[in-house]
Backbone:
């Protein structure tokens, strides 16, 4: 049976024809296809105003992004076959880059499964389902994951606010197996204990893996300040690669507790200090005490989550970079990053330029970083490219 049809308004198909996968509610011709006739998660055939069939999507009539493409085929089905094909393809790609099972296995739209994120922590999978379309096919999804990967545990990390917008429960669920008493992953030759239950997002951030590896090569004989350190993903590899001292700073007591455990796990207690503090407060104290570090890593959480927060978020990024430069030693390295999709590379570039100029320092960008290979970028979907990192050499003014 053919899927019911969802018609687009005139001239609203251009972005879709270019490869984007989202349809917004104001792009729908509701006179021809009223959104209220659909239930969240229904499969629909997307039709341009001229009658040309564009493909298959799943729909949620109650959300701003009211439909997400699954296939350019008009009668595609979301279920066991599609999950098997696309997850197997993503798995093969990850295994090209990583020799151990620690990576983001599925990154939503970029892996052809919008609304789905899966992080692999060895035999444990953390799954984030953020749309009604994927939620309705949860059972075949879990069955495919068990068949392909033979995990010991699958945990549904349902605390994402996007689920509320989709009308879904935010109750987390261990849907398969048993979680290990202690979950330890490996990255950049270091071991990390993570908290999949109470940790941020899925419990770990794989996206900066490549930049963290680049940074570790620069740390021999250096003093390092890791701001917004979470559980030590930047600082611990830096210490393992010969940093004389590493200071990890984070406001979260639970994150700092895990960072201390990871310091011990990697036998670095003599090199790494973990401090629970608001980062702004710490930087102000460090400046007053005239503390300086050879390398400062600034990797804050997303400070601009919505477009309307841009002004205040931009100012927060500016203040952070300004303060970080003030505690950087002569001829030091600043690693400045942002995961805010609403802060562009050009925005961060300008923040670095103006901050260095304000305190009369010479700053040059010597390298850039972005998402690791397990966070692929869809060339037609700018939203899949969110991470930006600048490695900056900073010296006295010329």
Residues:
């Amino acid at each position: 049976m053919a899927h019911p049809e969802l018609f687009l308004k005139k001239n609203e198909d251009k972005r879709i024809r270019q490869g984007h996968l989202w349809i917004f509610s104001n792009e729908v011709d509701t006179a021809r296809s009223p959104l209220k006739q659909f239930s969240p998660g229904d499969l629909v055939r997307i039709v341009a105003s001229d009658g040309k069939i564009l493909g298959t999507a799943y729909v949620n009539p109650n959300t701003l992004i009211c439909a997400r493409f699954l296939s350019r085929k008009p009668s595609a089905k979301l279920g066991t076959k599609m999950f098997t094909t696309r997850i197997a393809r993503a798995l093969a790609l990850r295994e090209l880059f990583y020799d151990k099972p620690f990576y983001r296995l599925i990154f939503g739209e970029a892996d052809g499964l919008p609304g789905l994120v899966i992080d692999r922590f060895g035999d444990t999978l953390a799954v984030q389902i953020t749309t009604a379309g994927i939620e309705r096919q949860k059972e075949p999804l879990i069955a495919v994951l068990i068949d392909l990967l033979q995990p010991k545990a699958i945990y549904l990390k349902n605390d994402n606010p996007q689920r509320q917008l989709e009308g879904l429960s935010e109750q987390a669920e261990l849907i398969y197996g048993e979680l290990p008493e202690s979950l330890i992953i490996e990255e950049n030759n270091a071991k990390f204990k993570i908290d999949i239950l109470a940790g941020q997002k899925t419990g770990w951030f794989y996206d900066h893996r490549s930049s963290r590896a680049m940074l570790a090569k620069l740390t021999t004989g250096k003093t390092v300040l890791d701001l917004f350190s979470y559980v030590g993903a930047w600082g611990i590899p830096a210490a393992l690669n010969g940093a004389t001292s590493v200071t990890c700073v984070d406001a979260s007591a639970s994150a700092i507790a895990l960072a201390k455990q990871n310091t011990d796990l990697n036998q670095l207690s003599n090199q790494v200090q973990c401090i629970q503090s608001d980062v702004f407060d710490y930087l102000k104290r460090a400046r007053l005490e005239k503390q300086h570090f050879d390398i400062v890593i600034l990797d804050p959480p997303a400070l601009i989550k919505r477009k309307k927060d841009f002004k205040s978020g931009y100012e927060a990024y500016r203040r952070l970079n300004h303060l970080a430069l003030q505690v950087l030693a002569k001829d030091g390295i600043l690693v400045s990053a942002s995961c805010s999709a609403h802060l562009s590379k050009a925005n961060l570039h300008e923040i670095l330029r103006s901050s260095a100029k304000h305190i009369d320092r010479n700053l040059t960008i010597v390298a850039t970083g972005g998402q690791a290979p397990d966070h692929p970028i869809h060339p037609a979907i700018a939203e899949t490219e969110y991470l930006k990192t600048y490695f900056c050499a900073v010296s006295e003014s010329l």
About this structure: The longest helix spans residues 80-97. The radius of gyration is 23 Å. The CA atoms of residues 30 and 71 lie 22 Å apart.
